[in-house]
Amino acid sequence: MQREELRQYLHEFLQLDKFRDYAPNGLQVEGKAEIRKIVTGVTACQALIDRAVEAGADALLVHHGFFWKNEPEVLTGMKQRRIKTLLLNDINLFGYHLPLDAHPMLGNNAELGRVLGVIEPEAVETVAQGLLWQGGLDSPMTAKDLSALLEQCLGQVPLHLDGGDRSIQKLAWCTGGAQDYIDTAAALGVDAFISGEVSERTFHSAVEQGIHYFSAGHHATERFGIKALGEYLAHEFELEHEFIDIPNPV
Q1: Confidence (pLDDT) at 49
Q2: Torsion, Cα of 200, 180, 142, 170 (10° steps)
Q3: Which three-class secondary structure string do you get for the chain?
Q4: Alpha-carbon span 246 to 228, nearest angstrom
Q5: Spatial distance between the Cα atoms of 123 and 121, rounded to a whole number of angstroms
Q6: Taking the model in full, what pTM does it have?
Q7: Binding residues for a divalent metal cation
Q8: What confidence score (pLDDT) does residue 126 get?
Q9: Phi-psi region of 130 (alpha: psi -120 to 50; beta: other; left: phi over 0)
Q10: Residues 6 or more apart from 164 whose CB is under 8 A from it?
Q11: Which CATH number applies to 3-96: 1.10.10.10, 3.40.50.2300, 3.40.1390.30, 3.30.70.240?
């Protein structure tokens, strides 16, 4: 398919105009006009870009791209090397941040709920551009059991901040660096909140409000959406697709 066709399709499919974001969503670096193979990955780091070159990608689709607010505007050092590699190999870079977190069908939050087997997952539409989700478990779990489930599904041990003796049946979650939604999650009356990172203040919020908190990894919680997007595009447009995971313990 043509680059412009893909750009326009994703602009509408991911509803880019709905979101206030920290970086531009859509085509960030222009490459070749015709796209036959796409590579997807979480972050446009040098390792992923190099692997995309090796894979013969015409386009690289990521969740964390370039040109974030408040980052240096000059193309020097690490940033120059990354973009130079893309340009020399005529690879398009597409980045989709909050729109991919929030997408109701294959976004990071929808996919994390699916992987964990959450019942009736839904976005809390009145909070944070629909980025906070909630749902239930089939039956109550202990915090230890939920930790084990997260480890099984995400491939790394989560950090658990103990919210007391309460068992867990109602969950809220937001993938990535959303630990500061813990107070909003507590106000929803859920038993546990899951996100990807943790701050010093998160501990006190969990203890004082009696809500379990699980920091399950920024990268680990955000693998699923971009992979699902690539698989969807491959099916819809008969593109070749490869998801490449660059391990990141954070």
Answers
A1: 99
A2: 170
A3: CEHHHHHHHHHHHCCHHHCCCCCCCEEEECCCCECCEEEEEEECCHHHHHHHHHHCCCEEEEEECCCCCCCCCCCCHHHHHHHHHHHHCCCEEEECCHHHHHCCCCCHHHHHHHHHCCEEEEECCCCHHHCCEEEEEEEEECHHHHHHHHHHHHCCCCEEECCCCCCEEEEEECCCCCHHHHHHHHHCCCCEEEECCCCHHHHHHHHHHCCEEEECCHHHHCHHHHHHHHHHHHHHHCCEEEECCCCCCC
A4: 16
A5: 7
A6: 0.96
A7: 63-64, 101, 218, 222
A8: 84
A9: left
A10: 207, 210, 212
A11: 3.40.1390.30
Q: Which residues of the chain have pLDDT under 70?
A: none
The CATH number corresponding to 103-218 among 3.40.1390.30, 3.30.465.10, 2.60.40.10, 3.30.565.10 equals: 3.40.1390.30
